[in-house]
Amino acid sequence: MNDLAPPPRRDLPAGRHEARRAHLAGELAAARRPRGLPFRFSGRRLVFGGVTAAGLAAAVTAVLLVPGDGKERGPVVMNAAATEVLNRASRAAAARPGLHPRPDQFLYFESRDYQAAEMGSGGLERPQSGHRRAWFSVDGSRAGLIRNSGDEGIWLCEGSGELAKREAAASAEGREPPIDLAHPPTGCRNDDVRLTGMPDNVEAMRRWLFDHRNGQNPPAVQAFITVGDTIRERYVQPRTLSVIFAAAARIPGVTVTRGVTDLLGRKGIAVGQTWQGHRQELIFDAATYAFLGERTLVDGQGAPPPGATASPGTGDGGGTGAQGSVVYASAEVRMAVTDRAGQIPR
């Protein structure tokens, strides 16, 4: 996930399979882009219940001499509690066992998601919850698969003449091409879902997060967003994930939300930033500090990070809805290795 953003999750367009494939291919493409504000969420992420304005209470802050985006002068105000949470998450990531898939195997990602209803033209008429399963070929030469909430799915197989013929034949008959797990398409050229080539020390990783931000937000805001974009539905080695979280602890303006409970009933602690009426958070297990997922809340009361001078709740990204309400959320259920696309790991 060098550049992952949550894949959009919308109702499939009616009509022939080209529209369906284009729609789901758009999900994958969106998952490869870094995300920016204003928040336009739909994707695979988790519902967090019981969130109120009281849950957004700020923790004690301290002045820490840490670098920011290379342009700040003097001390940067950091949240000491958030720094501790991210450092503990860094240590937890370093301690977890790594996966060692063979080139002919698949990396499996399972997640739950929630998307609040959106107002305006093209918005969702009602909230949506989803269950996403994705299989990515380790070496990229085999057809991967994405299935959302019971949908038959779509093959992930770029550059396959065989798949193009299947789709053309199905289109001529006015039907969707079936997903035959016993006969996946061949001739695929997919991207590697493993995150490689990243900095191996904390300060270099912090610079990477600022240098690779993609959006019009203030540097510290976009760098924090890039953390989630980088690790979402991508296999990250424990050492690299540890360095990413340690680097995130050096991003200014990150504060703590305590008492979070996700859709799976897991008790968590969150770190995040507020900007233009929304608070973007990373969620960690309250006991083990393992990464659980992400969420976005309406927050018209929180202070913006240092250097972000616009008032919260203003601008194109201004939050709509009750204070503390969940706009979008996701939870990682599990990650594993399988021998075939479509195979559910034990």
Automatic annotation (TrEMBL):
Claim: S-adenosyl-L-methionine is one of the keywords in the record: no
TM spans (from-to): 46-66
Keyword check for Transmembrane: yes
This protein's UniProt keywords: Membrane, Transmembrane, Transmembrane helix
Segments of this protein annotated with the region Disordered: 167-189, 298-323
Compositionally biased region (Basic and acidic residues): 167-178
NCBIfam families with a match to the protein in the record: CU044_5270_fam
Record protein name field: CU044_5270 family protein
Organism: Actinomadura graeca
